[in-house]
Amino acid sequence: xxxxxxxxxxxxxxxxxxxxxxxxxxxxxxxxxxxxxxxxxxxxxxxxxxxxxxxxxxxxxxxxxxxxxxxxxxxxxxxxxxxxxxxxxxxxxxxxxxxxxxxxxxxxxxxxxxxxxxxxxxxxxxxxxxxxxxxxxxxxxxxxxxxxxxxxxxxxxxxxxxxxxxxxxxxxxxxxxxxxxxxxxxxxxxxxxxxxxxxxxxxxxxxxxxxxxxxxxxxxxxxxxxxxxxxxxxxxxxxxxxxxxxxxxxxxxxxxxxxxxxxxxxxxxxxxxxxxxxxxxxxxxxxxxxxxxxxxxxxxxxxxxxxxxxxxxxxxxxxxxxxxxxxxxxxxxxxxxxxxxxxxxxxxxxxxxxxxxxxxxxxxxxxxxxxxxxxxxxxxxxxxxxxxxxxxxxxxxxxxxxxxxxxxxxxxxxxxxxxxxxx
Length: 423
Fold this sequence. Notes:
Shape: elongated
Largest sheet: 7 strands, mixed
Strand order of the largest sheet: 6-7-5-8-9-11-10
Number of helices: 16
């Protein structure tokens, strides 16, 4: 889809239980805007259930066709994922280009993907979406095969072409999955190396455009990092898809890794969530999640629910979480302030970042203990664990075993207290 000169009508069905329908339509318009598509009309319908043939009722199809001609549109975008038969029926009856919310999001992602990993993930999701829709997306084949010479032979040729396309797509899916598996293995290796250094991992998660990249850049600035470590930030949906990992060094030389993950959105395509699963493993393996919330948005509670549900879908569970209520300056709430599990900040203004760093420090390092241990030579398993999971300040070898000065968590201290020989 070209980003310019697209004039679209957006179409949605409000089911009885959908209390966030208006917001989802507003979001659909913003998603279209992210591709430079101008929304010139909107059509909604209240239904008990989605119409299986056309998504909307047959009367509404006629109404939509009239509106399409009236506003001189050249595209219709539907607010849900359409089935292959719905796309085919709508394109035949409306005689125009039809796309759904999933296609729109996939297109945005494909334009924003810069690293090879993000590109592979998006292409995989696009192909998985396209595979069952080949007939609908290539309806022109059927029309092409008509004519007076007896449609059977032509239709057969069309079907052969579809089979070729299907096989090509399936082969490409297999190839991309293999490549993604290799990238995942590289990530796992890198993660193990970081673990060996005993560094805590903090992961930024949240709805798209909540301010995750702005917070990362603010913390890098606050801790005196170079400008070349800054990540891309812009006030738009899905400004960045690529996971960035930066090291944050505090004044007392304590360090942690901060990773920025892809933002979420309601009705995020299932294939896309699955494809980005390896990227989101940074969050699954985090010691602390910073759940960034745009508190100035009236729908921020709903956005939090969407984020939690998506994290659960990729297996991010039981990770300690600090809620970072960003854009407090626009919300008219008191800030900066911090409570037990929340911090109110304005990352754009740089206000509240000290409170955020202090909250992170309390959660990551408050129970750390520095002590001296003597590990018998036959307990190499303990030495290996300490090397992998704690900060080793000094190592020497005595007659009875390995002498180590270690900074470690309270849980690890309790676990290995029998080896402690001094503070």
